[in-house]
Amino acid sequence: MVAYMDHKDLANQSISQERAVQIQDGINRVMERIARSEQRSGRQEGSVTLLAATKTRDVGEIMAAIDAGVRLIGENRPQEVTAKADGLIEACRERGLRLGGDPAESRVAGFHLIGQLQSNKINKVLPYVDTVESVDGLDLARKLASRALARGLVEGILLEVNESGEEAKSGCGPDRALDLAYELADMEGIRLDGLMTIGAHVDDETVIRRGFSHLRGLRDTIRSSGESGTGSCTQLSMGMTGDMDYAVAEGSTIVRVGTAIFGPRAFI
Questions:
Q1: Do 155 and 187 meet the contact criterion of CB atoms below 8 Å apart?
Q2: What pLDDT does 108 receive?
Q3: Domains of the chain
């Protein structure tokens, strides 16, 4: 168990009205920022989906975000998925929503795993998350596909690419991404929905945007390749609180935002 889970009840569903308003205000600011970035980049309004990154946030905080209009949430750790899932499912049901699925569909709140997934945790997340954004190799993909097939599922995945080359970051190397994507797209039990990256941890806009631009080029190559299973490869999950404007300018379809919605985390 992650240490902070001993100190915070992640299944808690009751938050103050003041906290709910703080979260709603945060979402409104982020959505306005996305809209401005779309407009500056000449992109269609609404072409970018906001994913609320909910690491260390409890069910009550997450539902406040959903009540404010968020239709895609993302967890970093499988332990948090299992700690919150039942409460989220029930709270969504009370609002006429279904947790898990395509957020473009009416009355659906999508549920992604955006952090690393170890193979021994696959069975913990499969009943709940509809997409794993952090698939970065064949071994994990094969195990995920096999276990999804055993449950009669087709699990959405994004291929994580380490565009920055930083050793501390996970993801396959950009030079391996095309070949790996074609293998993943052809597997039964999983569906290649797109690519994901974490922006370079630098202050140089040119460097950050170069990584995002390269990922977009990879996505476009995969989608237009005609290879089996690549037609669904449309998503680009890139951009967080600090670099989301650059990501939107470079074609991101999903931005993963936590701090700008919920405020600084009390736990790491």
A1: no
A2: 95
A3: 1-98 (3.20.20.10), 130-254 (3.20.20.10)
Return the half-sphere exposure (C-beta side, CA atoms, 13 A cut-off) of residue 258. Answer: 15
Torsion sign, CA atoms 80, 86, 89, 90:
negative
- The strand pairing partners of 178, in sequence order, are none
Cα–Cα distance measured from residue 196 to residue 236, given in angstroms and rounded to the nearest whole number: 6
Residues β-bridged to residue 191: 156
Distance CA 216, CA 184 (A): 18
pLDDT value, residue 104: 85
Nearest to 61 by CA among 31, 82, 84, 90: 84
pTM strictly above 0.90: yes
Token pair 């945790």 in the structure block, residue: 121
- Structure token pair of residue 38: 């779309």
Cβ neighbours of residue 169 closer than 8 Å, sequence gap 6 or more: 162, 198
